Amino acid sequence: MKRGHARDQREQNVIQQTKATEFLAARGLPFSVHDYEYAPGGGLIGMQAAQSIGADPGCVLKTLVVEVDRRTPVCLVVPADHKVNFKKVAALFDGRNARMMSPEKSADLTGFRSGGTSPFGQEHQLPVVLSAAAMACPHVYINAGDQGLVVRITPADAQKAADAQVADISAPPAPAEPIKN
């Protein structure tokens, strides 16, 4: 099968099931599964996924696990081409700061290995914050619980499934300054 090829729910039994796809299917939400070539040494994974499946990077969402004040774990879902505003994330949880959680600790909490973290079907469900920027997309692509696998779902269904809070927590990177001669 070609990389980046979409399959609907009826065909999922042919592919690898994950906790995330089982979680979504159990809720009766419409989604499709898409795979891409996972290359961890090749740069930003979300941008790789967007290119591989031919989707707008603003609608391909990366899933990050952070800690607010080193005590509150939170799952963030933000566009692949955006940067997280950690101060805004901390403020949402009445904290002073937020920082990335180690991949090992994240895997222990969520049950997903790095590069395969999903907001759906986590071992210990963390609070989920969905970037408000993603809500403008007709569909978003979110990790399906394994490296190289995403689900295509509406932002509203993703919010509902993950019981996510929607907030302004990310922004696209500033455009590069023109080079002056």
Biggest sheet character: 9 strands, mixed
> What is the straight-line distance between the termini?
49 Å
Structural class: alpha/beta
Helix content: 10-25%
Mean pLDDT: 87
Number of strands: 11
Explain how this protein is built.
The structure is a single chain. Helix content is 22%, strand content 27%. It is built from 5 helices and 11 strands; from the N terminus they run βαβαβββαβαβββαββ. A hairpin with a 2-residue loop joins strand 8 and strand 9. The chain is globular. 43% of the residues are buried.
Keywords for this structure?
181 residues, alpha/beta, nine-stranded mixed beta sheet, two-stranded antiparallel sheet, 22% helix, disordered N terminus
Reconstruct the topology from this structure.
Elements: E1 6-7, H1 19-26, E2 32-35, H2 45-53, E3 60-68, E4 72-79, E5 83-84, H3 86-92, E6 98-100, H4 103-110, E7 128-131, E8 140-146, E9 149-153, H5 155-162, E10 165-167, E11 170-171
Parallel strand pairs: 3-8, 4-7, 7-10
Antiparallel strand pairs: 1-2, 2-9, 3-4, 3-6, 5-11, 8-9
